[in-house]
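Please predict the structure of the following assembly.
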Amino acid sequence: MNLKETNRSAAVVGAGMTLFASRLQETGKEMTWEAAKMALDQAGLTLADIDAVILGTAPDAFDGVHKKGEWLLDGAGGVGKPYMRVYTGGGTAVMAPIAGWWHVASGMYDKVLVLCEEKMSSVQPHAQSAFGHIWDPILDRPLKPNLVWIFSMEMQRYMHKYDVSYEDIASVAVKNKRNAVGHPCAQLADPDITLEDVINSEPMALPVRRLDISPPSDGASAVVIVRGDMAHDLTEIPVFIDGVGWCIDTTMWTNRDLAFPEFVVKAAKMAYDMAGIDNPKKEIDVAEPYDPFDYKEVQHLEALGLFEPGEAARATREGKTQRDGELPVCPSGGLLGVGNPIAATLGIKVGELFWQLSGQAGVRQVKKDIRTGVTQAWGDLMQFSSVLVMRRH
Amino acid sequence: MGFTDRFQKTTEPRHRLGAMEADHYIYSAGIAGEKFFTALRDRGIILASHCKACAITYVPSRLFCERCFAELTDSDDREVGPEGEVATFTLVRQDSAGNALPEPEILAVIRFGHETTGFLHKLGEVSPEKVETGMKVEAVLKPQEEREARITDIAYFRPVKK
Ligand SMILES: [Zn+2]
């Protein structure tokens, strides 16, 4: 890999996102257009300025339309332009902007629009009905798996291997749902939530309880990525994409080390190497790891090299990852607080780092001076990770 | 993903109820899968494939090693179990529709030794509070006449009696 020899730099100059909620009134196209318009407006650009469009969206089964990429085309503004769909499950949220980055870094395009959409309320009776078909049809499906119980087994393995307490992990859910207060797109923000609320919430597949999980949602998000040397003309504080990485583990999920996601380490190493980061603990000022479950945030923080294996949960309970802590983690409120429209979480990952690092995060703004951030998403059959390092130059 | 969302009204102008009509699919067990399920049904054994180069044993058996791409043939077959160890587990309290289950279901990843891959199945003949990571379990097969070459030919795994 030639991580230091990409053609040119690329920066985010605008971002947008819609309300995350069950939105049966709007079509996916309408939500996508809404997010795209916000991002273009923030960058001071129009659709005519855009050279190429990337659309990220997860299973077709959610919206109930095959070839969702083509179906969402008009809302994405892709008509008459180079256009492609990116799909790596939940990992799409950070993989779609990585595709946007390579469109620009390769030298092929100057201004690229990246959108992510998900509409999970269409599938009835519940998004679980679609998730039921992601498993191996011969080995897994006869045992009637659902997503909650495989995550539960991962969490159990993690707690066992590193001797981590459930209460320490549950403190992630409290932090993120509180952080989401004041986010204009949030679905589950709760200023009064306590650790007891999480611990006493409904048992689903133990150790996982209802409040350990982010809710399904509808929404769309967008970012505009442009050539680095154009970025300062378009916005006061552009945020540069200085490192990208991605990696996938075996599809046979029972064969993985369920306690420690080695594939996230590999994706992070690629991104850190490209960004020239030797010591992430010292050099990363803010993190937006993927947090669909509370234990995933701590596992991801550890694999991103920001905490030692088994230590991130306790650090969370001690307050180190609060917005005003040593390392602010998920200042957006994350998937646990804002909501989890799979691919559209782009807005609370890459979008949030753009707003945070350019000082535009409003009530969510991290107070101390932050310059370098890392964000990461996780998906496919719980096996894929995409990582972005973003910086204010 | 909470389970509590309700069915939506679909009689208003803003909605239309529809389906993606594919009725069902035929899923292939594969060359190695067919061998595995035949051995399970007819001989009551759990068949695995061993890659010498990678020192890894795939459960169930596989046609190739996903790490080095070697073809795994009959000479690479290994029989594993019926005893194994719980690598992790979950106590399922709700079905996929969100209804509370009368008794928790116990699902586990089982390993048949250090260099084998994990195997997903249910646990039985054990109360939920007794289950722990590392416990020794053994496969309980359905009687031969009830077996139909499916993963459910193994009824469940139960603790090994000391
Ligand atoms: Zn091999």
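The pocket of zinc ion is lined by residues B 51, 53-54, 65, 67-68, 70 (CB under 6 Å). Chain A has one domain: 3-123+215-391.
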